[in-house]
Write a structure and sequence with these properties.
359 residues, alpha+beta, Rossmann fold, OB fold (Dihydrolipoamide Acetyltransferase, E2P), six-stranded mixed β-sheet, 8 helices, 34% strand, elongated, binds adenosine-5'-triphosphate, Transp-assoc_OB_typ2, ATP binding, ABC_transporter-like_ATP-bd
């Protein structure tokens, strides 16, 4: 059993509270991704679990055993770093077997484990090379292989793909997902890349300012963000945010663009809302479509052609930011022409002044 439990974990560096009261339960065999913007505390949280940083307060358990005072080497974890951290003077095989050799595992057993890991990662033909004779992607595989040979209870990944180019990153992402399927070991993976988080995770934990904003399965977070931060962080292209004013009537509430502006959407919300209250509406680019009549009038500023889809950026009177609309790749329009934009009311998110989702 290699569950990981964090109970009210706080980690301070002097006056900086990098991690502020984080509680989480990670189940055995789960792949959990910590994601968030630079400085949100995700690496610090991972290093606390690894034992590379002490805990200021709170309790850490791995497999139900208290770990606060257990040395990093005795926690049953293996960590893969962004920098690979390979020993330059050792061959790939020596790098991968080093930790086992140090704890007195027999040469035959070390060889067996190194070959098994190399086989999983398809680097068997590289075992005699030195790290400098490898590409970035191959080095990263060796770093992962070194973690695998140790048969840890928990794998920790700290932005392992950040130094790779986009193609290789996409390929290694699939490899890591496959590795998790094959090894069925608990994995905690840190990244700032929301695509990596969405595609890899059984469960995503979104961190901001050292705290958990929301946690849950990727699609749940995407479809039901708890607040504006989560809504804006997940999803590519980014969600549109529109300032709007509530005009409650009977039943659903009209949300207008400005006091006398057009009604953008009419829908019920949870929580009290009064006429004139300001809210923010969140609308994903694929929840907007072109309509023949009705909707909002917009002026075409730019069409970005991505191949499979096109992004229309339109200026709507009364809106501060351009509205981004995701359309089929065949879409064409002249800048300056007028379009009518229909919004799928059931896909509009409503955030109150504090950023909390109310509808
Ligand atoms: P990034 O994606 O940029 O690596 P992160 O989310 O992993 O960011 P952390 O590296 O965990 O963020 O840092 C969280 C906060 O703690 C930051 O404000 C950082 O400056 C601070 N911090 C991290 N390590 C130390 C340290 N050793 N001493 C002092 N402050 C630190």
């Amino acid at each position: 059993m290699a569950s990981v439990d964090l109970r009210n974990i706080v980690k301070s560096f002097g006056k900086v509270e990098a991690v502020r009261d984080v509680s989480l339960s990670i189940a055995d065999k789960e792949l959990v991704v910590f994601v968030g913007p630079s400085g949100c505390g995700k690496s610090t949280l991972l290093r606390v679990i690894a034992g590379l940083e002490g805990i200021t307060s709170g309790e850490l358990l791995i497999g139900g055993r208290p770990m606060n005072r257990v040395a990093a080497a005795d926690r049953g974890i293996a960590m893969v770093f962004q920098s690979y951290a390979l020993y330059p003077h050792m061959s790939v095989a020596e790098n991968m077997g080093f930790a086992l050799k140090m704890i007195g595992v027999s040469k035959a057993e070390v060889d067996r484990k190194v070959h098994a890991a190399a086989n999983i990662l398809q680097i068997s033909e590289l075992l005699e090379r030195k790290p400098r004779q490898l590409s970035g992607g191959q080095r990263q595989r060796v770093a992962i292989g070194r973690a695998i040979t140790r048969s840890p209870d928990v794998f920790l990944f700290d932005e392992p793909l950040s130094n790779l180019d986009a193609d290789l990153r996409a390929q290694m992402r699939v490899e890591i997902a496959r590795l998790h399927d094959e090894l069925r070991t608990t994995m905690i993976y840190v990244t700032h890349d929301q695509v990596e988080a969405m595609t890899l995770a059984d469960r995503i934990v979104i961190l901001n300012n050292g705290q958990v904003e929301q946690e849950g399965p990727p699609l749940e977070l995407y479809e039901k963000p708890a607040n504006r931060f989560v809504a804006g962080f997940l999803g590519q292209p980014k969600m549109n945010f529109l300032l709007a004013i509530a005009a409650p009537g009977n039943g659903p509430i009209d949300f207008r663009l400005g006091a006398d502006g057009p009604v953008i959407v009419s829908r019920p919300v949870s929580g009290a809302i009064a006429p004139g209250d300001r809210v923010e509406l969140g609308i994903r680019p694929d929840a907007i479509s072109l309509v023949d009549s009705g909707g909002l009038a917009g002026g075409v500023v730019l069409v970005e052609r991505l191949g499979g889809s096109s992004l229309l950026h339109a200026r709507v009177p009364g809106l501060r930011d351009l509205l981004t609309v995701e359309l089929p790749g065949t879409y064409q329009a002249e800048p300056g022409s007028t379009v009518r934009l229909g919004i799928a009311a059931d896909r509009v998110h409503v955030f109150d002044a504090s950023g909390r989702t109310i509808g």
